[in-house]
Amino acid sequence: MIEIKNLDFHYNKKHKVLSDIDLQLTNGRIVGLLGKNGVGKSTLLHLIAGLQFPINGSITVDEFAPQKRNVAFLQNMFLLGEEVPSTTMTINKFVKINSVFYPEFSQQAFTDYLTEFEITDLTQSMDKLSFGTRKKVHIAFALACNTKYLLMDEPTNGLDIPSKASLRKLLRLAMGDGKLVIISTHQARDLQNILDSIVILDNTNVLISADDALITQKLYFGIAKGDENEEDILYREANVAGDMIVKLNKDGQTSNSDVELLFNAAFTNKEKFKKAFSE
Amino acid sequence: MIVNKEIPIFLQLAENIKSQIIEGKLKKDDRIMSVRDIAATYEVNNNTAMKSVNTLAEENIIYQKRGMGYFVTEKAKEIIEEQRRRLFYEKELPILRKVMTQLGITKEELMSML
Amino acid sequence: MVSIIRVYNLIKRDLIIPFAIPNRAFFKNSARKVAVWRYALWLPLFAMIMGILYCTHSPMNESPELGPVYGIIFAIVLPYVITREHCKRSNREFALLLPATATEKCLAFAILSLIILPLYSIVSSCIGYYIGMILGNGIFKGTFVVSYIHRDLAVFLSPFVISLMLMIISLNLLLSLLIKNEIVQMIGLFLVFAILGIFPAVLAILKDVFLLPFLTGKTAIYLIYPLISTMLLLGSYVKLKEERA
Questions:
Q1: Residue by residue, what is the 3-state secondary structure of B22-74?
Q2: Contact A196 B5 (CB under 8 A)
Q3: Helix (H, G, I), strand (E, B) or coil at A77
Q4: Taking the alpha carbons of C31, C32, C35, C36 in that order, is the dihedral positive or negative?
Q5: What residues form DSSP beta bridges with A56?
Q6: Chains B and A are in contact, defined as 3 or more C-beta pairs closer than 8 angstroms
Q7: Residue C174 near residue C239, CB atoms below 8 Å
Q8: pLDDT of residue C59
Q9: Which residues of chain A are at the B interface, by a Cβ-Cβ cutoff of 8 Å?
Q10: Cβ-based neighbours of C104, under 8 Å, separated by 6 or more
Q11: Which of A74, A162, A240, B32 could disulfide-link to C99, CB 3.0 to 4.6 Å?
Q12: Sequence ranges of the domains in chain B
């Protein structure tokens, strides 16, 4: 479990990035971390990983404070940044020298994941690979390290369409009850259906942190029928089949949550949105 | 995965499994995919996978054996056939009638086409 | 508590990186080309020039420490290559989050330098000697060089050289942690090289001045240099613990 209390963070005093953040994330989930450009998604991931230190407040991951960088903590935490490390060694060598530090690493899993990504030649030099391919190697490595906590910053950037589908599949396959995956992304559509929870950051704070079950309980996503109460509609957008709307789910209808619509609804109608989830 | 946006995904998944049962791909007492495998194969989240399984359980199409998974019930095929028959008569037949009226197709003509 | 296995794996890991030699694509990037040409290639050149002067100058016989010292300085180029790989932000983040304690990481770096520096130093000295021999004496006397290599090896184990070496390693480690920007780091290291490069030459010239006995005296070797090294290493350890991406 990740517990964040009263977290303050900034790089310089004039511009606060995170302000008095309270957030609790329970394991067994793939969490989508969303927010506008520059809101602090990467920073939050860095704070959870222990690369940055809180200025006020605390972060606890299980019983650890990330900034202490205890070995036991680091062995169960993997951060895959937007930029992936580049090195002139071969894939095999890279894995060989780095996997020894992660006790739960599985070589079989690594090879399986690479196969899913259609990478078969492990004797290739890492720097000769295209950005997307190198990224896939790192994703496969990250997943194969089998850490309890996996943080990913824009993992779909640079991946082609089949690879994005492979990523979705592998994420769900590698998932387990004890694991927590946090994915920071702008590409809502890429990870659409596989997210168990959503956290939206806005203006130094958390706008919403909720499981998919709660989201689909509180909100209805679908085609407008024309008989809705205008007051209940949080967002409307034109669509081929009719208007797509997000509305308060007063009559308990079931629908598929749509991350992009959710995001738009949150920002178009912030007050109503917040109210819906605080009740 | 291509989904029909108007129908909740978990219902579509449940229908998918029902189709497999009706087509004989899944028989009585066969084990269906675990929630986790459903999530991985169809690329959906836990909530969706769980709901699809719960729907099937509520309709008595599958039963749960603690620690072992979900299995097809004896009456599953019957239940699904009944459901789909009802759906045919309640939803598809009226459409057929409407089209026949629109195009002036008689019952005899329809019978000969069948 | 230090895990020997982890330290061993850290050393193995960094041993590979310097030998992952930059390929042609690396040199095609023009900013890198300039940086590499200006800073990295100057150093072996500098080494050779000093080596030549050293071999053609009579003080060679009187200050045999100078050879290995030059070698040590240029041996820093190799750890520099290590830190350069680590310099890239994503590599830095990866290294910081690699599951090992700060103590283990510092220890691995220190041991790694201790392994590589002497090797590189001897090789650099040899190159300096050969060229110095050819240009200085016009002829190549293999046995002459061999006897100096022998002397070099003996001198390497001298307290003065070991003490100085440890200090240079500690300084190198701290510098690589303090300076994140690749180019600034290269400049910083180059300045260190330059200063340390001039230092022995100045030593040779000031041979008879009171300063030299002090700088190569027992107090300096057994007290002052180790003290400075310890402080630098402590500084590195603290910096590593506090290091943010």
A1: HCCCCCCCCECCCHHHHHHHHCCCHHHHHHHHHHHHHCCCEEEECCCEEEECC
A2: no
A3: strand
A4: negative
A5: A8
A6: yes
A7: yes
A8: 42
A9: 28-30, 165, 168-169, 172-173, 175, 193-196, 211-213, 216, 222-223, 241, 254-256
A10: C2, C3, C6, C7, C10
A11: A74
A12: 9-113
pLDDT of residue B66: 87
Specify whether the CB–CB gap between A169 and A161 falls below 8 A.
no
pLDDT at C201 over 90: no
- Give the C-alpha separation, A256 to A264, whole Å: 16
**Where in the sequence of chain A do the CATH 3.40.50.300 domains occur?**
2-203
Q: Which residue of C has its CA nearest to A83?
A: C90
| Interface contact flag, C17 A69, Cβ < 8 Å | no
Question: C-alpha angle with apex B10: B9 to B13, nearest 5 degrees?
Answer: 90
Q: Which percentage of chain C shows pLDDT scores above 70?
A: 27
Q: What count of CB pairs under 8 Å joins A to C?
A: 74
Separation of alpha carbons C86 and C10, rounded Å: 13
Residues 92-121 of A with CB under 8 A from C: 93, 97-98, 100-102
Integer Cα distance of A116 and A113 in angstroms? 5
**Residues A89, A125: contact at Cβ < 8 Å?**
yes
Determine the straight-line distance between the first and last CA of chain B, rounded to whole angstroms.
34
Task: Spell out which residues of chain B touch residue A212, defining contact as CB-CB under 8 Å.
Answer: 45-48
Topology of the domain comprising B9-113: Arc Repressor Mutant, subunit A (1.10.10)
Rg (CA), chain C: 19
Residue of C28, C87, C94 to mutate, testing the A interface (most A Cβ within 10 Å of its Cβ): C94
Token pair listed for A226: 């024309």
Query: pTM, whole model, 2 decimals?
Result: 0.79
DSSP conformational letter for A85 = P
Question: Does C28 have pLDDT greater than 60?
Answer: no
What is the rounded distance in angstroms from the CA atom of residue C182 to the CA atom of residue C169?
19
C245 pLDDT band, cuts 50/70/90, is low
Instruction: Kindly provide the b/e burial profile for residues A25-41, where b requires at least 16 CB atoms within 10 angstroms of the residue's own CB.
Output: beeebbbbbbbeeebbb
Say which range, A1-15, A54-68, A237-251, C74-88, has the weakest mean pLDDT: C74-88
Query: How far, in Å, CA of B32 to CA of B28, rounded?
Result: 10
| Distance between CA atoms of residues A236 and A90, nearest Å | 50
Please give the helix or strand (H or E) that residue C195 lies within, else none: helix C182-205
- Does this complex have an ipTM over 0.85? yes
C131: number of Cβ within 10 Å: 18
The pLDDT-based confidence of C105 (bands split at 50, 70, 90) is: confident
Give the count of domains, chain C.
1
Q: Give the separation between CA B114 and CA A80, rounded to whole angstroms.
A: 60
**Overall average pLDDT of the B53-77 stretch:** 92
Options 3.30.450.20, 3.40.250.10, 3.20.20.70, 3.40.50.300; CATH for A2-203 is 3.40.50.300
Q: Is A92 helix (H, G, I), strand (E, B) or coil?
A: helix
Name the interface residues of B facing A (CB cutoff 8 Å). Answer: 1, 3, 5-6, 8-11, 36, 39-41, 43-48, 51
